[in-house]
Amino acid sequence: MRIIAVSALRTFWTSHPDAETPLRSWHALASRARWQAPADVKAAYRNASFTRNNRVVFNIKGNDYRLVAAMRYDKGLMYIRFIGTHRQYDRIDVETI
């Protein structure tokens, strides 16, 4: 998948250094993936959650952080829409972010 807004990851791990290694690992796997449907994502990330509007929620660092991506399976694109703590995640609308 081509990941759009990778700078969001860098910005996040600058303020949360414990997230850098897990986010780099997530990025390495996701950027090599050729996900064509939610089932493909689920096969790689058992704990991924899916919402309407093609959003996927990934648990990062043992569920300490959440990453929300908007998926365009038909084009092989993933847009990072949010990365944050659970408290921050609870304040967003995943389907519209």
From TrEMBL:
<dbReference type="Pfam" id="PF09907">
    <property type="entry name" value="HigB_toxin"/>
</dbReference>
<keyword id="KW-0378">Hydrolase</keyword>
<dbReference type="GO" id="GO:0110001">
    <property type="term" value="C:toxin-antitoxin complex"/>
</dbReference>
<dbReference type="GO" id="GO:0003723">
    <property type="term" value="F:RNA binding"/>
</dbReference>
<dbReference type="GO" id="GO:0004519">
    <property type="term" value="F:endonuclease activity"/>
</dbReference>
<dbReference type="InterPro" id="IPR018669">
    <property type="entry name" value="Toxin_HigB"/>
</dbReference>
<protein>
    <submittedName>
        <fullName>mRNA interferase HigB</fullName>
        <ecNumber>3.1.-.-</ecNumber>
    </submittedName>
</protein>
<dbReference type="GO" id="GO:0016787">
    <property type="term" value="F:hydrolase activity"/>
</dbReference>
